[in-house]
Amino acid sequence: MVMKGPLEAQMRVNALSTPSFSGRPRLEEGKPPYLTSSVRGWKPVKVAMTTSIPREMQVGQVDTSLGKVLAPYQLRKRRPDHIPLEKLEVIAALDSWAQENLLPLLKPVAKSWQPQDFLPNSSSDNFFEDVRALRERARELPDDYLVCLVGDMITEEALPTYQTMFNTFEGVRDKTGCSPTPWGVWIRAWTAEENRHGDLLNRYLYLCGRVDMRMVERTTQYLIGSGMEPQIDQNPYNGFIYTSFQERATFISHGNTARHAKQFGEHKLATICGIIASDEKRHEIAYSRIMSKVFELDPNGAMLSFQEMMKKKITMPAHLMHDGENPRLFDDYASVAQRCGVYTAHDYASIMSHLIKVWNIESLTGLSSEAQQAQEFVCRLPVRILRLAERSHNRTKGETPRRKAFSWIHNKEVELL
């Protein structure tokens, strides 16, 4: 959008530093993501689970002619494990179940919200006035909040990577690109629903005038070019455990950005983040429902996969984030998100506890000895994670917070943990 003269001057928003919003109330289960939480005073701490792949598992630079234009990421030098035929048979047996229980969770396109529903209408005579009003509201958003919002948006914009990853799951791939199987239909329709999230946040950030959109867009290109490594290894059990966990994590993250936006007086942004959070919640229900069925049909295999993914730690989908300048961009972004209460170690443990409850892990019986050991390991893990977080918090008490400049917000600095 090109603007000239007095109108351009009226719509310009000064990129001034704004106060931090750390310590704001956070999302609670059972409450709409745009309401005020009663949780106060908990200070998030940084732990390894919410950052990138453990350094010891990163070996060898990528050997590719594109190496200079992609992020400086690394790959694990090992082949995916062989997937037992029994697991593939379980997934194959779920075709009719998916048709009846999974696809109804998708919303018809005609009844779905679209990004334009929440943004100034460019064909309206009031467009410029509406944009000015949006930019005025955005003045009150703190810099660290913007870092969290941009990070969430970039994560959503890397959707092509997630569809690609989904199609590595053995037994559920969309083999033709337009497969009529329930799994093929789900993958494409889920992608289509998710596509609106990045579009909506991107347009809001573009119109608000508070961020360096070129650096944001460059980060998105780097991220899509780099891909992701969630360590699923083509195993559909691992894949659906990962997606169950990750959809809940994004539900929490978007819900907390909605809550904070309301506190800053940006109620329309609160609605935007809230509507995205509601989509993530519905998708979480879908994936956790798949794993509930898998636990019913193959409790031993499902239990061992749950343990495997928890031992590997859930890698965030944007862990290869890079802007061409900061090689630790994702770690810094995750640190800001934890300090501000958008996504924290506490959330990681709470998601584990939630999935343990949803899948009735503690009450599973008749397991093999190996699966019983996995059951005990998984059930103890949330408490262990919280203890590690508390120890980390105690070690850093009294330390002066580090500050880091982010290219997304015109190289202004915000506090890390």
Please outline the helices and strands.
Layout: H1 5-11, E1 59-61, E2 74-75, H2 85-92, H3 95-101, H4 127-138, H5 143-157, H6 159-166, H7 182-208, H8 213-226, H9 236-263, H10 267-297, H11 299-312, H12 329-339, H13 345-358, H14 369-396, E3 403-406, E4 412-415
Antiparallel strand pairs: 1-2, 3-4
Helix pairs in contact: 5-7, 5-8, 5-9, 5-12, 6-7, 7-10, 9-10, 9-11, 9-13, 10-11, 11-14, 13-14
Textual characterization of the structure:
With 417 residues, the chain is mainly α. It has a single domain, classed as Ribonucleotide Reductase, subunit A, CATH 1.10.620.20. Helices cover 54% and strands 3% of the residues. The protein has 14 helices and four strands. The protein has helices at 5-11, 85-92, 95-101, 127-138, 143-157, 159-166, 182-208, 213-226, 236-263, 267-297, 299-312, 329-339, 345-358, 369-396, and strands spanning 59-61, 74-75, 403-406, 412-415. The strands form two sheets. It has a two-stranded antiparallel sheet with strand order 1-2. The chain has a two-stranded antiparallel sheet with strand order 3-4. Helix 10 (267-297) packs across helix 11 and helix 11 packs parallel to helix 14. It is globular. Belongs to the fatty acid desaturase type 2 family. Its cofactor is Fe(2+); Fe cation. One of its GO terms (molecular function) is metal ion binding.
Low-confidence parts, pLDDT < 50 over ≥5 residues? Answer: 1-17, 27-73
Give Rg in angstroms. Answer: 22 Å
CATH architecture: Orthogonal Bundle
What is the count of distinct domains?
1
Major sheet details: 2 strands, antiparallel
Arrangement of strands in the largest sheet? 1-2
Give the end-to-end Cα distance, rounded to a whole number of Å. 38 Å
